[in-house]
Amino acid sequence: MRKFFIYFIIIVNIFSNTKNIIYLSQWKVDENFELKLINSNKEYKDNSLKDLNSHNFLWEIITKLYPKEILYKIKSFNIFIDNRNEDNQFLAFIEAIPNSNNQYFSINIDISDFYKNNSFLKEKYIDTLIHEFFHIISLNESQISQENTGYLRIYEGYCKKESYLNQFYEKFWEIFSKRNSNFIFKYSELSYEEKIKIYTKYENQFFNYYALTNPIEDIAVSFEYFVKLGKENHFKNIKRDKIDFFYNYPELIKYKNYLTEKKNRLIIN
Question: How do the domains of the chain map onto residue ranges?
Answer without folding.
Answer: 17-137, 144-268
